[in-house]
Amino acid sequence: MRGIQLQLSQTQKVRLQKALEQLESLSSKVNSDASVTIADSIPVNHEDGVLKGHGTTDLNGEVVATLCGVVERVNKLVYVRSLRSRYKPEVGDIVIGRVVEVAQKRWRLDINYSQNAYLMLSAMNMPDGVQRRRTALDELNMRCIFEEMDVICAEVRGFQHDGLHLQARSQKYGKLSTGQLLTVPPYLVKRQKQHFHHLEQYGIDLIIGCNGFIWVGEHVEARDDMVEDQVNQTDPQVLIPNKDSVSFEEQEKNYTALETRKYICRAANAVRVLSSLGFIITLEIIKGVFELSLSSNLDIHDMLGSEFCVLVAEKEAERRSSNKKKR
Amino acid sequence: MEYVNPEGLRVDGRRPMEMRQIRAEIGAVSKADGSAIFEMGNTKVIAAVYGPREVQNRSQQMSDQALVRCEYSMANFSTGDRMRKPKGDRRSTEISLVIRQTMEACILTHLMPRSQIDIYVQVLQADGGTRSACINAATLALADAGIPMRDLVTSCSAGYLNSTPLLDLNYVEDSAGGPDVTVGILPKLDKVTLLQMDSKLPVDILENVMQLATEGCKAIANYIREILLENTKQLEYRRGS
Amino acid sequence: MLHNKLFPKKTRGGKIIRQLREHYLRDDIYCGAPFCTVCDSSGARLSESASTILVVDTNVVLNQIDLLENPAIDDVVVLSIVLEEVKNKNLSVYNRIRAICDNSMRKFCVFSNEYHRDTYVKDMRGETKNDRNDRAIRVAAQWYQKHLGGAVKVLLITNDKENKRKASEEGICAETVESYVKSLDRPDLLDLLVRPSSEDVDMEEVEDLRPSKRKVIYSEHKPMSEITSGLHRGIYHQGKLRVNRYNPFEAYVGSESIGDEIIIYGRSNMNRAFDGDIVAVELLPQDQWKEEKSLSIAGEDGDEDEDVHLAPNSADVAPRTIPQQCSTGEVNAGSCRPCGCIVGIIKRNWHSYCGSLEPMPMPGGSGGVAHALFVSKDRRIPKIRIQTRQLENLLDKRIIVSVDSWDRQSRYPSGHYVRTIGEIGDRDTESEVVLIENDINSRPFSSQVLACLPPLPWSVTSEDLSIPFRQDLRHLRVFSVDPPGCKDIDDALHCYALRSIYFLGYYFVSNISPSCRAAYSHLYIADVTNFVFPGTPLDDEASQRGTSVYLVERRIDMLPKPLTEDVCSLRSDVERLAFSVIWEMTPEADIISTRYTKSVIKSAAALSYVEAQARMDDSRLMDPVTTDLRNMNSLAKKMRLRRIERGALTLASAEVKFQIDTETHDPLDIGMYQIREANQMVEEFMLAANVSVAQQILKSFPLCSLLRRHPTPTREMLEPLLRVAAAVGLNLDVSSSKALADSLDHAVGDDPYFNKLIRILATRCMSQAVYFCSGDLSPPEYQHYGLATPLYTHFTSPIRRYADVIVHRLLAASLGISKLPPVFQDRLQLTSIADNLNYRHRNAQMAGRASVELHTLIYFRKRPTDTEARIVKIRSNGFFVFVPKYGIEGPVYLTTRAEKGSGEWYVDEQEQKIKKMDGSLSYSILQTVQIHMEVVEPQPNRPKLQLTLI
Which residues form a coiled coil (chain A) (predicted)? Predict the structure, then answer.
């Protein structure tokens, strides 16, 4: 059993157990026997016709799971939604990745997929914002845009013959700086309308990548309007992140307030706690945890302690049951 | 030496057809994509799976299937003598290969082309049957990593001492020098994927011993399935919707 | 089922290694009482109406096993911890208690307390192993009492005072063995009791009985820790003590650390060690080392001396004579061999011994407890002191006695009476003694064994014939040649000449010259494995017995009589199943091809050696059987010649033959066994078959074949032979078996018997051939020295030797006729089978010899004889003579015992002569002397054969 690896006192253990049991009772009513493991056969009504989807295979006319997960049925389609696996890209997903290599006309990014993803030079807007053909000079200057180990936000463009391609044709995509990258299992992230969030109160940005990479960073002005795709708006200050040219003054300007940095850490720890508890990660819940920590006047580092963990679990159980009642 | 006394008890108090206590735990290595600890009595093995991920050595990349790699090692503290275990000696190379081939046979590698899956197994404590324990741990870790598989592979050993087939030999029985048959099966498909023995045994007795080991495998499979199902359920309900 | 409880166990080996062992505690171990309501009583062993259940502790089992074997003691619970301890301390007692537990007639139940959830006890800090085990026994006893409730009484039997006290404190009924047996009111059982050694419970009682013996006679044994450290530092040497069969005051310890044998002289140096004990020896200072010359025939103790024995025929039987390092002038330092004294006994080899009580006057009050001295038949064993209440019954009986202890104050070990065999001097009793002494099982076969026999009367059925691998050879003219009166005929022969042979790819036809003919020689061996299947009780029994034993007047069969004498025996005029070896041979006896097959035959004639010889010699007889005999004989002669050319030794032994009165079974005549050409002919084909089969099975099963090897004798072993040869001016070349064979051939002395005598002496230097498992040794060691063949096995006598049964199975498996039984996979088991076969084989030989000795004695009892003898060994006060006519060997004293060592005679080592000081008289080795043989009875019931010089 995947346990929570924390030192818990006896009462904490009991409380956690109780909270988890409550969670279990809440969910068990929803889909009770949908969980399967490898080689379990999935009961289907063959007369209706079955389309076997992901995580299933055929064995002597039986539909058999090849993954551990939850059986989902959409009309005729039967598939197993896997938990705890690597990210499965879908076109249009917003992902966060890390540059592993700068190659010919492209960057290779680690996005927690079984292969690296490609971001073509041609698939991203030039820093100057001008739409034009990429020249050989642009190719040579690729490192001025992204370097190895840079964290980048992009969108899944689709599969080509040579692998997965990303695009970043918007000002909201691009390099991320002054913040923290967190990795959580992708199944904890739900695809939603909005993945870019600005917590104005605290001046931080939160980008929840569909691939389980979550960015918590200082708010960047250029992205104030995140809902619309504003291609034409430019902000050279942010979009020319040329390290070589960063002067002392600019460094001064890039200086992040201690308060903001603390908020970043707090938000990051909120994500960590949720991830370690295996709770779904949405803006609402992160905010909830964030505020819980603030209201209970907890130090940032104490957020990873056992007490807070139990507290979060209890709060979550409370939240879900109240949600349920509302419905 | 008497390995089964006339009362039908083995040196550790088991009966010939009994397995040691087994215990499994999923998620022992948080960094890995999937991991598990598997214990058979005092034999304790940890397995970690990384991948599917980008192939490290691009010349090994296969465009139609995933590359499976396996590394077996024994911790220096795993045995009583605490000797320094050289890495990559013949025995561990052989066991690595055995585990790799066994796991490769059940992973649906064609679903993950151009990627690589790394399985690391380490023996934390050795008391006979490490090979089987490694395979069981690797199965759990692969399942935990969400890697699609045809079926679970489970393995168990059986031996033949004092003219009695014995299930799941421990170290004392293993070092008796008798035949030790390690069997790996796909329980759902009812197929044998691994059969190893390094001594001679008449065919009819081998059949008995193998049958016993297969029974053991099935019992392990049931246990592993239970553990996995419980784990999946927990993940699901914790995640919520 | 599985009650899981895990705990670590630490054990320390030579290096300190922490070991972790699992130990599962169970709840499905049953108490074994049929009336128990809780437990599954289907396999219950205790009796239905048991009112008292005995729980015995380890020392009770170890010491009172004879009592436990008595059927009067029943309803005993043997705890697994007790078995474990007994096994570690004394394996033979362990086997005996196991046998009792397995015996369905006895109400003994094994309770695995160590694996039971409620009776397992954890080690406590600061508790010794013994205390812990005692506690475990008490816990188990308590559990029994609680488990069975008040209906029965659970009685803990222990002689340990402390244990008893603690038991009573814990509310367990506990008694000592003595008080329990007394409460049974069975005085005959009391004799079976082992007296507690003087340190134990009733010390005062012993003190009372033997006040005069309270002085220390032997030095103390060193504690085990000191011995271990001494062994490490090389002060002490470890080895097995072997007492000289001919002189119980002299013993040898073969020590690996010295690489030589250490001699131990005298009882005090032997310090209470028995033959076969593993001992620790300390070397004496060199000036106390005795020279070999001073060894005399008899010991220092006046009342034991040399008996007349059958001449030994191999080095294993004969006492190991001492190799002399230098035979030249510089005598002193070199000729001394290390002497030592025993400081501790690492492992005892005590068991029970056959013998009789030393004659003594009847004590005044009969029926009371009397002390008596027991004299073992085996001269290597010291006298044993026993207590008995039935002295008058035992005085003239052969009895069995067990050794219990030997403390420092007593001159002799103390033991207890086990059972009576019969009257001294009675032939049946003495035969029984011979069997017991050699550990030969002469009990009738059990019903389980007999159930394995085929239905009788048995005959070949069509089913047997229809099996594809069984060839029908009933039309062939088969005959057997065996000793007269032989009933277990396990081999038969057939031979026919071929007119055409397929030779070198050409079809070679010849009917012109008889010398161009080839011959088929067939050898049929009884197909015992067709009736004895592996894993059956019959097979187990045969495997245990190992061999049939031939005594002068009876035969103890390995297989039950119907098999031995009828179903397997290849008797004449009946159809029998056989395993055949078929050779195609050239007239020069070169083997062209060898084939093995199972077959059905019908023997035409069962000849004796004498008959066969007579037929061959009678030139008038031209019937087919006789011609076949002659043909085979000519082939055999050629084979024999070739074998001798290869270097096979023709060794000789002094086998004797008795003519037994059919009614009284007393020996009527005694004479050397005569070897005829017919014997040699049969022998030759047997050897050839054995060699062929050995090659065949080794080819198929290189790791698990059972072969027979004869190790090359070392130079030291041949030393006595060389010394004798040198003394008579003979030059023997012992560099190889071929060289030895040749020089033996050339050793022709002035009289016709000289050559044979030398051969007999040579045979005596060799060790015996042994069975072994081919996986245990490397191929060069497979060699059979005496037969000069690289491979040899036993195939030809499956009725009377178990080794042949094994080889039959191997051969059948190698031909694909049957599957190889699983035992062959288990190398250790195979090795232990081979060891057992060697042990049984040797014992059977010893028993045979002992039987001959016994009958010799009976024969000479009424017939004092004068005869010719040859001197074979020189000693300081006499010499050993060998009597060719009767095949016996014994000492002849030149001095009477009183004047021993008076120096009238001295030994010339180099010339192997004993001379009178004044030079008037001398005897040299191999010299012929006239002796008088007579049976004398120096003590009542102790007849012995005495040889005196005329």
Answer: none
Give the per-residue pLDDT at B135: 96
- The SS3 of residue C503 is strand
| Residue A229 burial (10 A CB sphere; 0-12, 13-18, 19+) | exposed
Q: Does C18 touch chain B (CB under 8 A)?
A: yes
Q: Which two tokens stand for residue B231?
A: 């784990």
Residue of B nearest to A27 (CA): B237
What distance in Å separates residue B101's CA from the closest CA in chain A?
Answer: 19
C371: nearest Cα among C249, C220, C205: C205
Window B:39-98, CB contacts with C under 8 Å: 41-42, 80-81
Give B48 to chain A, closest Cα distance, Å. Answer: 14
Chain B's closest residue to C822, CA to CA, is B202
pLDDT of residue C45: 77
What average pLDDT does range C741-761 have in this prediction? Answer: 76
Interface probe, candidates B37, B237, B241, chain A, greatest A C-beta count within 10 A: B237
- The 10s digit of each residue's pLDDT in C225-262 is 888 888 888 888 888 888 876 677 778 887 777 667 78
B6 touches chain C (CB under 8 A): yes
CATH architecture, range A94-256: Beta Barrel (2.40)
- Domain segments of chain C: what residues? 52-190, 203-217+350-424, 234-347, 864-949
Spatial distance between the Cα atoms of A256 and B57, rounded to a whole number of angstroms: 41
Confidence of residue C498 (pLDDT cuts 50, 70, 90): low
Q: How far apart are CA C480 and CA C830, in angstroms?
A: 32
Domain C52-190: which CATH number of 3.40.50.2300, 3.40.50.1010, 3.60.21.10, 2.40.40.20 = 3.40.50.1010
Cα A306 from chain centroid (whole Å): 24
Positions of E strands within A194-283? 196-199, 204-208, 213-218
Domain C234-347: CATH architecture, name and number where available: Beta Barrel (2.40)
Is B229's CB within 8 Å of A35's CB? yes
pLDDT tens digit sequence for C858-869: 888 777 888 888
Cβ <8 Å between C822 and B202: yes
Is B34's CB within 8 Å of A84's CB? yes
Contact C601, C473 (CB under 8 A): yes
Q: What is the ipTM of this complex?
A: 0.91
Nearest CA in chain B to C821: B202
Residue in chain B nearest C109 by alpha carbon? B7
B44: closest CA of chain C, how far (Å)? 13
CA distance B201 to chain C (A): 6
> In chain B, what residues touch C827 (CB-CB under 8 Å)?
177
Domains observed in chain B: 22-239 (3.30.230.70)
Question: Looking at beta carbons, which residues of chain B come within 8 Å of C101?
Answer: 6
pLDDT of C264-285, one tens digit each?
Answer: 887 778 888 888 888 888 887 7
Question: Is the Cβ pair B143, A38 closer than 8 Å?
Answer: yes
Contacts of B52 in chain A (CB under 8 A): 86, 114
Give dist(CA C791, CA C708) in Å, integer: 8
Report the relative pairing of strands C470-472 and C591-608 from DSSP bridges.
parallel
pTM (2 decimals)?
A: 0.71
Q: Which residue ranges make up each domain of chain A?
A: 10-14+261-326, 34-82, 94-256
Domain C864-949 has CATH 1.10.10.10: no
Q: With pLDDT > 90 as the criterion, what percentage of chain B qualifies?
A: 66
Please report which confidence band the pLDDT of residue A224 belongs to, taking 50, 70 and 90 as the band edges. very low
Highest mean pLDDT among A89-98, C650-659, C723-732, C847-856: A89-98
Two domains, one topology: A34-82 and A94-256: yes
Distance CA(C29)–CA(C25), nearest Å, equals 10
- pLDDT of C933 > 50? The answer is yes
> What CATH number matches the domain at C203-217+350-424, 2.40.50.700, 3.40.50.1400, 3.40.640.10, 3.40.50.2000?
2.40.50.700
Q: How far is CA C239 from CA C64, C285, C406, in A?
A: 29, 19, 20
The CATH number for A34-82, chosen from 2.60.120.10, 2.40.50.100, 3.60.10.10, 1.10.10.10, is 2.40.50.100
Interface test with B, best of C21, C23, C98, C809 (most B CBs within 10 A): C21
